[in-house]
Amino acid sequence: MKNKKVVSIKELAEMSEVSIATVSRVINKKGGYSKETEEKILKLAESKSYQQNVNARSLRTKKSQTIGVIVPDISNEFFAKIIQAVEKQAIKYNYSVFVCNTDENIEIEKRQLNNLIGQFVDGIIYIGGGVQLGNETQALKIPMIYIDRYIDDKEIYIESDNFHGGYLAGQELIQSGCRKIAVMKDIRKISSAHKRYLGFLKALKDSKVGFDEKLLCDITVISYKEAKEKTLELLDSGEVFDGVFATNDTLALGVMTALNERRIRIPNEVKIVGFDNISASEIAGIPLTTINQNKRKMGELAVELLMDKILSRKSNVNNIKIPVNLIRRKSTEN
Hints:
This protein has three domains: 9-52, 434 Repressor (Amino-terminal Domain); 61-160 and 296-322, Rossmann fold (3-Layer(aba) Sandwich); 162-293, Response regulator (Rossmann fold), CATH 3.40.50. The chain has 13 helices and twelve strands. The chain has helices at residues 9-16, 20-27, 35-47, 54-61, 77-90, 106-118, 135-139, 162-175, 191-206, 224-236, 249-261, 279-283, 295-310; strands spanning 66-71, 96-101, 123-127, 144-147, 156-160, 181-186, 216-219, 243-246, 271-276, 289-292, 320-322, 325-327. It has a six-stranded parallel sheet with strand order 2-1-3-4-5-11, sandwiched between helices. A six-stranded mixed sheet has the order 7-6-8-9-10-12, with helices on both faces. α11 links the parallel β8 (243-246) and β9 (271-276). α10 (224-236) crosses α11 (249-261). Keywords: DNA-binding, Repressor, Transcription, Transcription regulation. This is Transcriptional regulator, LacI family.
């Protein structure tokens, strides 16, 4: 079978009877042309199977029609769902997405950041990362959007309403009859987890329910396994609790496993609330009450705000707080 001849932008311009610059503006959606011209060029481009020489354009313009995403743990469903939304939204701008996983390792994060810059990505979305790099990321001359972890008030930052989510979690446990509530949270200074904890404490304070700090379990590695071990340690210490707030669902599922091993009935003896609403929380042996985050909205907004920067569109948006809601399931039933 004979290969189809590759049509150049010059030939496409000649066929369309317009300038090369006009074809370029249409292909790259830069504006400055009529609707009729746009339709004619796009129709010709499709019929002739025109494809841009991305490599040549990248070298010439230092732009690649790509954005980078840096994520701390791609196996975490919360992050994966955001990435999925980012990819769907980016394709609307004819942009490709490079996803870089760091495994929460600062050295890998630096390397991945340098790799993306070397690829001439037009912008970068940091999901739950960038905390340790701090000033280094701010000094880069490249558009950046941060999701889930606060960096600096000069940067655009997208987050769920974590404080209100923590408040809702505390309120749910209290209204379900809990008075001795344990907390499983990330020990690191991560803004999202800390705000959830503060919101939880506010709910207790408003309901005049005390909090025993001996029931606070700081987790060094966010994993099902460590949450299970911490729960077993808490039980072995003799501390009594009738509720647990875990600052993400992975930790909550670890708590559930530990309680099941000790034959402690959920929700009869201990009630549990998680955070994130990952799919496992719904299909667990005892469906988990949790705080739902709009992961799709976070990803879509991140792309739109990044494109505002890349395309120099006017935007007054700075930090965005996305509402959360409680999903009540069996783990807090009376």
